[in-house]
Design goal:
This protein has 196 residues and is mainly α. The protein folds into two domains: 90 residues, RNA polymerase sigma factor, region 2, helix turn helix motif (Rna Polymerase Sigma Factor, Chain: A, Orthogonal Bundle), CATH 1.10.1740; 85 residues, Orthogonal Bundle (Arc Repressor Mutant, subunit A), CATH 1.10.10.10. It contains nine helices and no strands. The longest helix is centred in the middle third of the chain and has 22 residues. It is globular and about 55 Å long. It starts with a helix and ends with a helix.
Length: 196
């Protein structure tokens, strides 16, 4: 079933239709929060809250075709709130230490990689995610929405409540800064492309 069909079914009293939406969107929302916040615990909390809010407010969504934009708006707002909370309490964001357990493990559907490839990919993902955590929050959010979740510029603009030009500017400067950080770590585009 499509999102619109599940939403219409939910609005018509079939609350179990919401489970279909959760199954479809749980991984993307969790991964979005994880890349934004750099913490599994925070990402799990945000993901859970996103779906609680969605369940409570789905009846207010006028256009079911815009569910993706709507759910990412909720997630982006919750991530923003988490950053404000962290700043208020002057908590530092997570930094990567290669002798720690992988705090950025994503939910994926396959485990078909060979052990060496999996290890190399894990290190590259840690480096990339560490680099992402070093760029400004607004730029990071745009990069994640565009590069990882394939949202369109107009969708990101509505989610972030900015203009499309602002979104494009944040993407440009964010990627430029990200590239510089990766180059400083001797990671080039070829390594990232082949390794991830």
């Amino acid at each position: 079933m499509t999102d619109a069909e599940l939403i219409n079914s939910f609005k018509n009293g079939n609350t179990s239709s919401f489970i279909g939406l959760v199954k479809k969107w749980e991984k993307p929302i969790y991964n979005f929060a994880l890349r934004n916040l750099g913490s599994k615990h925070s990402a799990e909390d945000v993901c859970q809250t996103v779906f609680l809010k969605a369940f409570e407010n789905l009846h207010k969504l006028k256009d079911p075709e815009k569910f993706k934009q709507w759910i990412f708006t909720i997630a982006a707002n919750l991530c923003r709130d988490e950053f404000k909370r962290r700043k208020k309490f002057r908590q530092k964001t997570v930094s990567i230490s290669f002798n720690e357990t992988n705090m950025f493990e994503e939910i994926t559907d396959t485990d078909s990689e060979l052990p060496d490839d999996r290890f190399n990919n894990m290190i590259l993902k840690d480096i990339l995610k560490d680099a992402l955590m070093q760029i400004p929050e607004q730029q990071r959010t745009v990069i994640i929405m565009k590069q990882y979740h394939n949202l369109k510029f107009h969708e990101i603009a509505k989610i972030t409540k900015t203009s499309e030009n602002t979104v494009k500017s944040r993407l440009y400067y964010g990627l430029k800064t990200l590239r510089k950080i990766l180059e400083n770590n001797k990671i080039d585009r070829e390594v990232l492309t082949n390794g991830m």
